[in-house]
Structures are given as structure tokens and as C-alpha cells.
Design a protein that fits this description.
Largest sheet: 4 strands, mixed
Helix content: 25-40%
Radius of gyration: 18 Å
Number of domains: 2
Number of strands: 4
CATH topology of the largest domain: Nucleotidyltransferase, domain 5
Strand order of the largest sheet: 3-2-1-4
CATH class of the largest domain: Alpha Beta
Order of helices and strands: HHHHHEEEHE
CATH architecture of the largest domain: 2-Layer Sandwich
């Protein structure tokens, strides 16, 4: 736990390409969220709070800081995650990659469409979109941009096996 400030600094340096950030101060909450994720082994923001170092005196202060960061419309998560994804999959050119197109409906109000890499029984999202709609069935036009974004993330020449369920039965697809 004594190395958490150093780990946060390394994460900030890794994702800190200035051209992608409108304000450098947005880097630091991301660095500490990454530290919390790695140290706690849990994707819950509250699980990682004990590993956060800073001026906050109460855990709620860090939790609010992370919530504000996630809700900030100036932080474009997919634009920031693209270089990290490209770096992670750079050596996959000689392999076959399984991609799954899937939806999740939350509270009968929000539909999440995501394209994920399938590896060892787990799905790691590459691109996603949240739609305000009461159905998990999504029109092709709503996720067409996601399909267009994926080839830019994958290495050239990679063989792709594309998986989608019957909810995506569309002639354009």
C-alpha cells in the first residue's frame, strides 16, 4: 500500500497524452480509480477508496470526486481508452479474435450496446454506447458507429469471429 502514490503517477503518465485531455486535472481521479481497482481487485469505486491518497479526510469525499469525474461531459472515456486498448491488443495480429455484440437493459430505461472481446469465458468491452430506451432490441443505425470504431482498435490482419444474438437480426449487419 505504500507504493500507491507511485502506481497512481505511473498510471497518469501512461494515459496522460495531452492531446486527449481537455484539462490535465482530469488525469488524477482516473489514476486513483485505477489504483483502487488494481489494489482492491474490485470494480466498485467504493472498494478502492482505502487506497486513495490525497487531501480528502473522509471516504465520501473521494467517492464524490470519482462520481463527478464519471459524470463530467468533458471526459470522453472511449477516446481515452482507445490507445490503451490498441496497446493491449497490438500483438493479436496472428490470432483469431472473438467479438460479441450484446445489449443489456437496465431499469427498463437504459440500453447498453457493447462490442466485446471474448477471452477465456470473459467479455472485455472495446466500445459501447448507452441509449435511453425501454427495450434491449436496438436498430442497426444506433450501433453502426460502434461497428465502424472496432477495426481502428484491432491490429491489421487479425482474423475476427463476430458473434451476435437474434436481437441483432438486421440485413445491414
Amino acid at each position: 500500500m505504500e507504493n500507491t502514490p507511485r502506481l497512481s503517477s505511473e498510471l497518469v503518465a501512461l494515459v496522460g497524452q495531452p492531446s486527449q485531455w481537455r484539462a490535465v486535472r482530469h488525469l488524477y481521479p482516473l489514476g486513483w480509480m485505477g489504483v483502487g481497482l488494481m489494489q482492491s481487485g474490485d470494480v466498485s469505486l467504493t472498494a478502492g477508496i482505502p487506497f486513495v491518497r490525497g487531501r480528502a479526510r473522509y471516504a465520501q469525499s473521494s467517492q464524490r470526486r470519482f462520481a463527478r469525474w464519471r459524470q463530467n461531459p468533458r471526459v470522453e472515456v472511449q477516446a481515452l481508452s482507445a490507445p490503451l486498448i490498441q496497446q493491449a491488443v497490438a500483438e493479436w495480429g496472428k490470432y483469431t479474435v472473438d467479438l460479441a455484440l450484446d445489449t443489456t437493459l437496465l431499469w427498463n430505461r437504459y440500453g447498453i450496446v457493447r462490442l466485446s472481446v471474448i477471452d477465456r469465458g470473459r467479455a472485455g468491452p472495446l466500445v459501447w454506447q448507452v441509449l435511453e430506451q425501454g427495450s434491449s432490441r436496438v436498430a442497426y443505425e444506433a450501433y453502426e458507429a460502434l461497428l465502424d470504431a472496432v477495426p481502428l482498435l484491432l491490429p491489421h490482419g487479425v482474423k475476427v469471429v463476430f458473434l451476435a444474438d437474434r436481437g441483432f437480426a438486421d440485413t445491414h449487419l
